[in-house]
C-alpha cells in the first residue's frame, strides 16, 4: 500500500541509502533526497549519486513519477571540527573509548536536524535513514534509541509531527540485499552492486562480486560478507 505522505531520504550514494530510497519509493507518493558534503574521505560517494538517482528512476515508471528534487548540503564544517578516519588521512583503528575512529561525532545528529529543516520547508513529513543497530560499527548515533529521541526533539523544537523511519534498523547486511531484491528485483540488486559506493577509502578500481571497494576496510568487509551470505541463500 502506498501512503500519501511525503518522504525525505538521507541519500549518500551507498548501499544502505540506495535500499532506503527504493523502500521509500515503494511506499510514499512523494519522495525527495538529501545528501551531505562534510569533507568525507570517501567523497567519491557523492559523485555517484546523480547517476544512481537517474538509474533508480529508470527501474520503474512509478518510481520515476514519485522521485522529486535532490538536495545537496554543504556541511564541510563537520569535517573541520572533527578528527576521524573518515575526514582525515589516518589509519582506521579502535580508540580508547571503545569506538572506531571512523565514528564522526555528531554526524547523524546534524544530518537529521538539517534534513528535518529541509523537510519542514518542503512540506515533507517523513525522514528516512539507513541507520542500523544490527550490522554496525558501534556508532551510538545509529542506535534506535538515538533516532527515537531525535524524533521527539525535532518535533518539540519545530512544532511538527515528523516521523523518522529506519527500515534497516534491525536487519543485517544479507537481509539488506534481500530487501533490495524484494523491492526492485535483480535489476535493483545489480544497480546497488555496481553503482553505489561504500568503501571508506574511496577505492573504485575493481568491481568485485559485491561491488567496488578496497575489500579490506570495515565497510567493505561488512558489505562483502553480507552479499555472499545473500547470494548463497539465493541459490
Automatic annotation (TrEMBL):
<feature type="binding site">
    <location>
        <position position="217"/>
    </location>
    <ligand>
        <name>Zn(2+)</name>
    </ligand>
</feature>
<feature type="binding site">
    <location>
        <position position="220"/>
    </location>
    <ligand>
        <name>Zn(2+)</name>
    </ligand>
</feature>
<comment type="similarity">
    <text>Belongs to the QueC family.</text>
</comment>
<dbReference type="GO" id="GO:0008616">
    <property type="term" value="P:tRNA queuosine(34) biosynthetic process"/>
</dbReference>
<keyword id="KW-0067">ATP-binding</keyword>
<dbReference type="GO" id="GO:0008270">
    <property type="term" value="F:zinc ion binding"/>
</dbReference>
<keyword id="KW-0436">Ligase</keyword>
<feature type="binding site">
    <location>
        <begin position="11"/>
        <end position="21"/>
    </location>
    <ligand>
        <name>ATP</name>
    </ligand>
</feature>
<keyword id="KW-0862">Zinc</keyword>
<dbReference type="GO" id="GO:0005524">
    <property type="term" value="F:ATP binding"/>
</dbReference>
<dbReference type="InterPro" id="IPR014729">
    <property type="entry name" value="Rossmann-like_a/b/a_fold"/>
</dbReference>
<dbReference type="Pfam" id="PF06508">
    <property type="entry name" value="QueC"/>
</dbReference>
<dbReference type="InterPro" id="IPR018317">
    <property type="entry name" value="QueC"/>
</dbReference>
<feature type="binding site">
    <location>
        <position position="214"/>
    </location>
    <ligand>
        <name>Zn(2+)</name>
    </ligand>
</feature>
<comment type="pathway">
    <text>Purine metabolism; 7-cyano-7-deazaguanine biosynthesis.</text>
</comment>
<keyword id="KW-0671">Queuosine biosynthesis</keyword>
<dbReference type="GO" id="GO:0016879">
    <property type="term" value="F:ligase activity, forming carbon-nitrogen bonds"/>
</dbReference>
<keyword id="KW-0547">Nucleotide-binding</keyword>
<feature type="binding site">
    <location>
        <position position="199"/>
    </location>
    <ligand>
        <name>Zn(2+)</name>
    </ligand>
</feature>
<keyword id="KW-0479">Metal-binding</keyword>
<comment type="function">
    <text>Catalyzes the ATP-dependent conversion of 7-carboxy-7-deazaguanine (CDG) to 7-cyano-7-deazaguanine (preQ(0)).</text>
</comment>
<protein>
    <recommendedName>
        <fullName>7-cyano-7-deazaguanine synthase</fullName>
        <ecNumber>6.3.4.20</ecNumber>
    </recommendedName>
</protein>
Amino acid at each position: 500500500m502506498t501512503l500519501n505522505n511525503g518522504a525525505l531520504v538521507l541519500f549518500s550514494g551507498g548501499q544502505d541509502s540506495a535500499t532506503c530510497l527504493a523502500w521509500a519509493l515503494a511506499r510514499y507518493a512523494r519522495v525527495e533526497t538529501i545528501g551531505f558534503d562534510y569533507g568525507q574521505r570517501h567523497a567519491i560517494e557523492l559523485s555517484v549519486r546523480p547517476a544512481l538517482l537517474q538509474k533508480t528512476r529508470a527501474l520503474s515508471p512509478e518510481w520515476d513519477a514519485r522521485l522529486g528534487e535532490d538536495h545537496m548540503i554543504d556541511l564541510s564544517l563537520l569535517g573541520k571540527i572533527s578528527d576521524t578516519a573518515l575526514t582525515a588521512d589516518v589509519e582506521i583503528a579502535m580508540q580508547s573509548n571503545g569506538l572506531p575512529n571512523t565514528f564522526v561525532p555528531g554526524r547523524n545528529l546534524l544530518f537529521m536536524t538539517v534534513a528535518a529543516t529541509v523537510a519542514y520547508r518542503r512540506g515533507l513529513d517523513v525522514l528516512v535513514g539507513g541507520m542500523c543497530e544490527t550490522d554496525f560499527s558501534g556508532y551510538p548515533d545509529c542506535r534506535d534509541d538515538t533516532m527515537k529521541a531525535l524524533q521527539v526533539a525535532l518535533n518539540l523544537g519545530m512544532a511538527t509531527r515528523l516521523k523518522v523511519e529506519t527500515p534497516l534498523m534491525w536487519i543485517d547486511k544479507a537481509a539488506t540485499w534481500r530487501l533490495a531484491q524484494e523491492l526492485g528485483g535483480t535489476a535493483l540488486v545489480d544497480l546497488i552492486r555496481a553503482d553505489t559506493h561504500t568503501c571508506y577509502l574511496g577505492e573504485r578500481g575493481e568491481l568485485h562480486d559485491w561491488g567496488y571497494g578496497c575489500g579490506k576496510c570495515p565497510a567493505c568487509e561488512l558489505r562483502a560478507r553480507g552479499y555472499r551470505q545473500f547470494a548463497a541463500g539465493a541459490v
